[in-house]
């Protein structure tokens, strides 16, 4: 349970960083509670749709030596913001490139924070 909560908070911080750093991503609400709920939506979208999309695009991922995974992550990032908007906690994205940069920022911040908090994640 602790691992889930730490991962959830890491996603919330990563999404906050993406919204603050990347121009073209506009949050519906600036409160931390919104980012925590958005992180839950983001995690559910990635957990359920991520493997399905990666399986369906496996030939493209193999053909591009994994680079197409960035496009899949961009689509998941955009979709999480769209679904979150339906609940009042999402964000709007101005196009492909802000979504792409947002997904890259989320990935980088998540990796860095996961390395920092790796001891808590092992329990």
Secondary structure blueprint with pairings:
Layout: H1 2-21, E1 25-27, H2 32-56, H3 58-63, H4 68-86, E2 91-93, H5 96-116, H6 118-122
Antiparallel strand pairs: 1-2
Helix pairs in contact: 1-2, 1-5, 2-4, 4-5
Explain how this protein is built.
With 123 residues, this protein is mainly alpha-helical. The chain has one domain. A two-stranded antiparallel ribbon has the order 1-2. Helix 1 packs across helix 2 and helix 1 crosses helix 5. It is globular, with a radius of gyration of 14 Å. It starts with a helix and ends with a helix. The mean pLDDT is 91.
What topology, given as strand order, has the largest sheet?
1-2
Question: What share of the residues lie within helices?
Answer: over 70%
The radius of gyration is 14 Å
Task: Indicate the mean pLDDT.
Answer: 91
β-strand number:
2
Strand and helix order: HEHHHEHH
Regions with little confidence, pLDDT below 50 for 5+ residues: none
Count of distinct structural domains: 1
Task: Quickly count the helices.
Answer: 6
Structure classification: mainly alpha
Main beta-sheet strand count, sense and barrel state: 2 strands, antiparallel
Shape: globular
Distance between the termini: 9 Å
């Amino acid at each position: 349970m602790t691992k889930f909560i730490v991962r959830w908070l890491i996603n919330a911080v990563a999404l906050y960083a993406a919204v603050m750093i990347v121009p073209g991503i506009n949050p519906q609400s600036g409160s931390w509670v919104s980012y925590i709920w958005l992180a839950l939506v983001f995690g559910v979208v990635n957990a359920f749709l991520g493997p399905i999309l990666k399986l369906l695009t496996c030939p493209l991922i193999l053909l591009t030596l994994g680079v197409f995974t960035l496009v899949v992550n961009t689509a998941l990032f955009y979709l999480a913001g769209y679904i979150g908007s339906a609940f009042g906690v999402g964000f709007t994205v101005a196009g492909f490139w802000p979504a792409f940069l947002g997904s890259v920022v989320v990935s980088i911040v998540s990796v860095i924070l996961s390395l920092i908090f790796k001891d808590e994640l092992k329990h």
